[in-house]
Amino acid sequence: MIVIVGAGLAGLACATRLEQAGADWLLLESSEKPGGRVATEITSDGYLLDRGFQVLLDSYPTARELLDLQALKPGYFCSGALLAGGHGLEVLLNPLMHPAGILRDLATRSFSLTQKLALGLYGAARLLAGGDGDGEVGHTALEELRRHGLGGDILEGFLRPFFAGVFLDNDLGTDASVLRNDFRKFAFGRALLPAEGMGAIPRQLAALLPLSRQRYESPVAELLRSGERVTGIRLASGETVSCKALILGTEEPVSRRLLGLHAGRSWSQVTTLYFTGVDPLYEGGYLVLPAGRERLVRHFADLTNVVPSYAPRGRRLLTATVLDCGNGIDAELNRRASQEISAIFPGFVSWEFLKRVDVPEALPSQRPGFLADQPTRLQGCNLWLAGDQVARASIDSALASGLRAADELLATLS
Ligand SMILES: Cc1cc2nc3c(=O)[nH]c(=O)nc-3n(C[C@H](O)[C@H](O)[C@H](O)COP(=O)(O)OP(=O)(O)OC[C@H]3O[C@@H](n4cnc5c(N)ncnc54)[C@H](O)[C@@H]3O)c2cc1C
Q1: Are residues 154 and 95 in the same domain?
Q2: What DSSP string describes 211-233?
Q3: Residue 134, Cβ neighbours under 10 Å: how many?
Q4: Are 104 and 157 contained in the same domain?
Q5: 260 and 271 in a common domain
Q6: Does residue 28's CB lie within 6 angstroms of at least one atom of ligand 1?
Q7: Disulfide-capable partner of 396 in 60, 174, 240, 345 (CB 3.0 to 4.6 Å)?
Q8: Is the C-beta atom of 389 inside 6 A of ligand 1?
C-alpha cells in the first residue's frame, strides 16, 4: 500500500495518477474535506468566501490535463486590470487576449509611452522564451523589472499591485524566475473562478477517486521507520497504517516536523476582507489595482461581476487583499480598507463588512536561491514529497508536483 499524506491539490493529483496506474493507495487528510489551501466557505446566507483571493488560469497545463474546466462552470476575469492612480480609473487590457484594446492601452495616461514599450518588449521576450521561468537567476522580481525599464509609475501603478498580490510579497523580493513564469501564464491565459467557488476544484478531483481510499479527519502524527525506510504512519488517534512507500503532500513545516528536521523557509501571510453591497461599483470583471507602495489594500475585485453566484441574489461580494497587516484589530483594518476603496469608488460607503479571512501560512518564501522543481524523492528512502515544498507555489505547480512524485514512485517500484 502507498500512503499519501495530505489531500491538498498535490496529494489529490498524486492519488489520481496512482489510481490511473492501478496502484494500491490510501489518502490521509487531517481536515474534514479535500483542498488544503484551496477552499471555499459557504455562509448561511449564501456567500461563497474563498480562503483568500485565488484564481485558476486556463493556461495552466496540468490543470487542463486533470480538470474538466467547463464542468466548473467558470466565470472569467477580463485579462487586464482597472488602474486606480493619479489619472483616475483607467482600463489596461492584455493585448494578446483583447487585441482590440491596444489603442486604448496606448492612450492610458497612468504611465509613459516609453514604459508601455518596455512592457511590450518584456512581454515579447517572455513569450519567445523557451522555458516557463528560464533566464538569469539570483535576483528578485523587483530587480528584474527595474533592469527592464519597468520602474517608476508602471511599477507602482500596475506591476507592484498586481504581482505583489500574486506572490503575496509587497516588496517583490520573490525570485525573478517566478515573475517570468507567472507573467507568461497570465499573458497566455485567462483567470477564472468556478461558479461554486475555488473549493470546487479539489472537490472535482476527489469525486473522481474511490471514496474508500480517501480518509478525512485523519491527521498523521508520526512516521514509523526502520532505519532509513518508512514502514508506516501513526495517526493522532493512535491507529497505525503500514506502507511500502509514502508520499508527503503536506505543507513544508508539517513535512519537516514529521521528518524530524528543523524549521524550513519563512511563509507569507495574507488577509482577505469581504464586503457586501447592493449597487455595483464598476462594470466588468476587473481586478482593481490601487497605485502606490504604501496602500493597505493591495488589490480588490467585485467577484459578482465575474461569477454572480458568489453572492445571494440581489447582493454583491467584494474581496480585498491585504498584505503584512499582522493581527491588526478588525475595526481599524476595515475602516482603513473602506476608506481606501471609497476614495476610488465613493458608492462603497453604503457597503458593509462581511468577514475577515486570515491565512497565516499562505505561501512559502520564494526568494532568490529557492529552487523550483526539486527532486521529489528523499535520498535513500522510500519517501517522496509533493506540493510547494518541492515546486513553485501555485495551483498548477502543486498538481504537477503530485503527478511527478507519483510517476517517480511508480517508476522506482516497477
Ligand atoms: C491566499 C492564497 C492565494 C493564492 N492564490 C493563488 C492563485 O491565485 N493561483 C495559484 O495558482 N495559486 C495560488 N495560491 C497557491 C496555491 O493555492 C498553493 O500553492 C497550493 O494550493 C498548494 O497545494 P499543496 O497541495 O501543495 O498544499 P496544501 O493545499 O497546503 O495541502 C496540504 C494538505 O495537507 C494536509 N495536512 C497537513 N498536515 C497533515 C497531517 N499531519 N496529516 C494529514 N494531513 C495533513 C492539510 O490539511 C492540507 O489539506 C494561493 C495560496 C493562498 C494561500
Answers
A1: yes
A2: GGGEE-S--EEEEEEETTEEEEE
A3: 11
A4: yes
A5: no
A6: yes
A7: 60
A8: no
Distance CA 272, CA 285 (A): 18
Q: Give the model's pLDDT for residue 128.
A: 83
pTM listed for this prediction:
0.95
Reading the block at residue 229, the C-alpha cell is 525506510
CA distances from 347 to 280, 282, 283, 314 (A): 8, 10, 13, 16
Which residue, among 30, 56, 3, 83, has the nearest Cα to 193 in the 3D structure? Answer: 56
Which helix (H) or strand (E) segment holds residue 242: the answer is strand 240-242
Is the pLDDT at 17 greater than 80? The verdict is yes
**Do 378 and 229 belong to one domain?**
yes
Number of domains in the chain: 3
CB 39 within 8 A of CB 228: no
For residue 238, give the CATH number of its domain. 3.50.50.60
Instruction: Find the domain containing 274 and state its range.
Output: 40-76+192-198+267-364
Does residue 197 contact residue 40 with C-beta atoms inside 8 Å?
yes
Q: Which of 202, 214, 247 is nearest to 66 (CA)?
A: 202
Query: Are 183 and 231 part of one and the same domain?
Result: no
Decide whether any atom of ligand 1 lies within 6 Å of the 250 Cβ: yes
Digit-coded pLDDT (tens) for 138-172: 899 999 999 999 999 999 999 999 999 999 999 99
Q: Whose CA is nearest to atom 51 of ligand 1?
A: 362
Residues sharing a CB contact under 8 Å with residue 173, sequence separation 6 or more, in sequence order: 140, 141, 142, 367
Helix, strand, coil percentages for the chain (3-state, nearest 5): 35, 25, 40
**Distance of CA 42 from the midpoint of ligand 1 (Å):** 19
